[in-house]
Write a structure and sequence with these properties.
By secondary structure, this protein is of the alpha+beta class. Helix content is 19%, strand content 33%. It contains nine helices and 17 strands.
Amino acid sequence: MTPHQDISEDTELTFLPYWRFKGIQYACTPAGVNHWFTDVSCLAIGDAPSQIPFSLGIRSQALTLKRVSARTLGTFIRPRSLKESLEVLSGRNKLSQKALIKEDIGESVSLIYTPFYQAEGQLFDGILNTPLGKTEGVENFTEKDYCRPEKETQILSGLCPGCGWDLEGRSDSLVLICRNCHSLWQPRKDELARVRFGSASPHHSEDVLIPFWRISARVRGIALSTRQDLMQMANLPGGEHSRTSDTGAEPEKLYFWAPAFKIRPKVFLRISRQVTITQPTSELEKKIMKNTHLPITLPATEAIQSIRITLASLATPLRDHLPPLANAEIKANAAALIFLPFEPHHHEFINREMNLAINANVLKLSENL
């Protein structure tokens, strides 16, 4: 965060680290699936004197944040681990404490540095330029391990490892596209790793290709291995007989589907339910189409975590299915990115095969999640 404009350039600033956690929290009780958006922060240093605020409050949401660079003058305190910092935030919602199923979906974690300085025996907030209290106990606190964040940030090349072409992606994209060799790549440790994917052919050149995670998973503890089992759990027509039973074919294999992009929690659940029930059967190609692709902003690990919540939102009646579902073991075998075509309309994108519409404004606003 940038210091107050009235602070002299000669002032020795100390930047203290705060972990910021943003994401959607789901909690499932016999009464239903609840969800809420969380945006919290906590001081990333232990044993802080009382003058130091524990949280940034709404500053991280209300103020403009700038990246730390070599031009950012001041002393930066090294943060402690994210796990240690967030332990103090556990149990922050009473409803989640009573839930049998709890998941954080689509969470993002960032490190924010905010400035403080000392003058005339007082500790000052560098944002508001106001005193926080006497500097007693602060001296030892600011002698902790120092760091330069910009030097410890790892940067990966934006060139395709397969062909050397420029990779395509928005600033918040987790997966980058190479249109030259038709491949997808995502960061993994200190390199880019290839992502399995498939694309359904669009019907029109204006169609937008929207990404979904298709997950093959083994579920133990409840009978759930085919689409027929899923329909029975949801108490929907088709639960007694598979769609292919009349032809004598094997029951359809069940895939779990989830949006590969962040979106409001209620809409996320609705889309996950509808696509999982529909089980899209479009013929897929390993090809990057010329159409516009919606950015991938939700990783496969988060989509896998959403399986239990999606099933809870489908289960009817929930009170009967919830205990075994909460105790079931769900292990993903494979996850692939699937791009499905949606027709752009004035207010929404529509996929007619699934009879699914996604509001365009909701998609746009979800960029801030």
